[in-house]
Amino acid sequence: MSTGKIIARAAIVILVINLTSKILGFFRDMVIAYQFGATGATDAYLVAYTIPYVLMNILALALSTVVVPVFSEYESQGRRDEAWKLFSTVTNLTALAFAVLVAMGLLGTPWLVKIIGPGLAPEVAALTEELTRIMLPLLVFNGVSTLFNGLLNANNIFAVPALSTVIANTTVIVSTLTLGNVMGIQGVAIGTVLGVLFAALFQLPSLWRSGFKYRFSFDWRDPGVQKVMSLMLPVTLGVSINQIYIVIDRMLASGLAEGSISALNYANKLILLPLGLFVMAIGTAFYPTLTKQAVDPKAGDMATTLQRAFRAVVMLSIPAGVGLMVLRYPIVQLLFERGEFDAHATAMTAYALLLFSIGLVGQSANVILTRGFYALQDTRTPVKLTLITVVINLIFSLLLIGKLQHGGLALANSIAALTNTLMLSWFLSRRVKKLWDRQMVRFGIQVLAASGLMAVVAHYVNGFAAAIFAGYGTIGLAIQVALAISAGILAYILAAIGLRIDETKLIFTYGKKFLVKLKRA
């Protein structure tokens, strides 16, 4: 089988599994909302989870990023056995480093909770400390699991690592419905730890079949280990800056009304849905072409590719953001309002969703623009601009939180994302000539006009359907939302065709090509 077909099949498998994982992840949040609503218990869980989650993302993601190139380098030199020995040592050092962090965290739990959630009520803070102690071992299991993920990918095994997230989400769902009923939110915390542990164990058989042989080695002076550590440093810096967003929101929201942290979390999960399903897929598809064209950015090919990718995500993200604004209440009601998640929690979440939606186009565009810098092998500029964006986010959060409460944090996030888009666009245009022109301005106006028509249609269809299906419970609400979304999408497509937006032709063309490739693969 050709390399192209192998990549195509792997991409399809990963796409399907990732889609399944995201659906399960969303269902996990729905189950937690059903059991505990948007309350002090869920606030405590989210703050407690933030502590290991931030450290996991900073260190584990940085580690997984450098695993593939280093392993591939050893393998290309015919040193496969040395590669496995190296990463056996890295596995041991990773587990040891995270175990030390866990021990330090257990000793300093009260101080950690005061830093992340300084405004929590005393009883919520006490619960947060208890949940933090339960979930800190996540660091060890997730560190090892992420390392296994990278090693399997380096050996062209993609399905198993992707499935490990499905295992983790499924475990949390089952634990919430079982342990959660018996032990309360503590049962969810235990299930979260078990999910990551099972995800790591699930990958071991495939790792052994690939040739991995465990060695009890802690030789941190090994040149390979030193190289892994040196490569991790810049990646760690970039990832850590991005995690500051989460910490800022949790710290400031802890002093607001009970359930504010949870409302922001649920609203943000809705925003991440179009980002994860569509925008990341577009960014991944365009990136290999960008890296090849970056050899000669003055030739103009890179500018054309970046424009196409940018226009594609804008054409999807603006209507998605507008649609979430218009249909925020029925969507939140349909997905979350049941069990302990009451009408008040719906109102809080819908309010946050409204203001998060403003910045969806910025978050989406930033994925493409950042990849433009990476294709040019410039990792410093995005990091510097992200740092400035974090400061902007903090300033607007402090300015808006008094009047808008948790909505102020959501709006600050949107303002920061849009500002980052402008900065990335400006600096990238200085590296890639002819990146922006009048056609892009015309395109933006066309998309806004089509999205405006979509909003009007979705609003009236939603009101009409709500009147007809009132009293039919969840099924009636589901039909109402489905009709409003369908009518909105149809109106948007017709408006885009009428306004002669070029991407409508490309979507149909690439859609047909994708279906043909999918059938052949």
Notes on the protein architecture:
The model has no long low-confidence stretch (mean pLDDT 84). The protein is globular. It is built from 19 helices and no strands. With 521 residues, it is mostly helical. It has helices spanning 3-36, 40-76, 80-107, 109-116, 122-135, 138-154, 159-183, 185-209, 223-253, 260-293, 301-326, 328-336, 343-357, 360-375, 380-404, 406-431, 438-469, 473-498, 502-520. The protein starts with a helix and ends with a helix. Helix 4 (109-116) crosses helix 5 (122-135), helix 12 packs across helix 18 (473-498) and helix 17 packs antiparallel against helix 18 (473-498).
Summarize the structure.
86% of the residues lie in helices and 0% in strands. It has 521 residues and is mainly alpha-helical.
Q: Between the first and last Cα atoms, what is the distance in angstroms?
A: 11 Å
- Looking at how many chains there are and whether they match, the oligomeric state comes to single chain
Query: What is the beta-strand fraction?
Result: under 5%
Largest sheet: none
Q: What proportion of the residues is helical, as a percent range?
A: over 70%
Radius of gyration: 24 Å
Query: Helix- and strand-based class?
Result: mainly alpha
Given as residue ranges, the uncertain stretches (5+ residues, pLDDT < 50) are: none
What is the average of the pLDDT values? 84
Tell the overall outline.
globular
What's the β-strand tally? 0
